[in-house]
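User: structure tokens for Pyrimidine-nucleoside phosphorylase, please.
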Amino acid sequence: MQTVDIIRKKRNGGELTAEEIQFLIKGFAKDEIPDYQMAAWAMAVFFRGMSDRETADLTLAMVESGEQVDLSQIEGRKVDKHSTGGVGDTTTLIVAPLVASAGVPVAKLSGRGLGHTGGTIDKLESFRGFTTGLSTEQFVKQVNELKIAVAGQTANLTPADKQLYALRDVTATVDSIPLIASSIMSKKIAGGADAIVLDVKTGKGAFMKDEESAVQLAEAMVGIGSRVGRQTVAVISDMNQPLGYAVGNALEVKEAIDTLQGRGPDDLTELSLTLGAHMVVLAGKTDSVTEARGLLEGKLKDGSALAKFKEFVEAQGGDPRAVDQTDLLPTVSRQVEVPAPEDGTIAQLEAEEIGLCAMQLGAGRATKEDRIDHAVGIVLHKKVGDVVSRGEAIATLHVNDESKVKAVQNRLLQAVTITKERIVPPRQIRSIVT
Ligand code: URA
Ligand code: CA
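Assistant: Done. Predicted tokens:
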């Protein structure tokens, strides 16, 4: 088999066989196929696309390029949750203990934040002492005992995806639906999940700016899941404005705790219950989403979801007292309000820009090596559709580095649009793809 023939076939719009795809991915992972050939192939895929069958074969080839997490020692159906990346998105901190409190095993591999989006591990490390460095044995044991564990990725999962993603990043071939779908799904499958619930974001702060391409991406991923025997459901959700009010690590932990106490923001609560309900159904705990949702609402009301969160924090070395006394979490030296420049209704709160404002305050990383400040960030007081008066606070900046205040205040105001027209708040859940 010759690499050039495979590139030509795809360039001419042909459908590659499973063997051809395996040859390509294996060769690339072993550095036998050079970057320039792989880049040419990626560009051919960008223009020609891939069939559902090719996309599933590409996913499996990438899964087989590295280790696969064996979760077979965990009792029950393991359902993973994945988000395509949002701003102020603390749903994992809510959904994981929530569904665990309903008896569904949650074995979650999570990452750190980069750029305008945050990461679950960074948020959890707001608890002093919290560790995600669990061995596979500890991870499995904790899920069997508590139904919940969150670990950083230690195993060498999908190295071919890492290599291909780096190449796509510099060859303008990231935004291809089959390449994105296979990249995301390969990591979930290698992580050992039996079933997967995806939160596919759409809007200004999302990877997929328009709803139609978000649905296409969701359909591609659900299609891969069904072809490889891992049932997958996708929730299409709004990411034009940040989720909830808080953006920043400890601030989002507090928001998650509020939500676990049943008094969180409406959008965050709605999304958490929707994602959680689909996880409960896929785990086989209830027959219908409606029934699952009722079960989870009960767990928020009776305190079991919050109690589960506390147990989980303690099991992974964090200070559980901070769950009840959130003033034990990292706090800032100064809070600065951002006043509205005029009367009107909030028409836009651009998620990506607000995420970048939080990053500029120190809540996120511009490069992988940057250290983050868990205490800093932004708390919004208004959301799209809310009325404001001139001088009223739209947001509060939580700051430790005084020198950044002016620039971030100005940047934040640029991200806000105020109008005299009536604005209907966006629907958080756009559709469900099964
Ligand atoms: N996220 C991924 O993991 N892979 C992609 O290709 C795009 C976004
Ligand atoms: Ca939030």
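User: Anything notable?

Assistant: The first strand starts at residue 79 and ends at 83.
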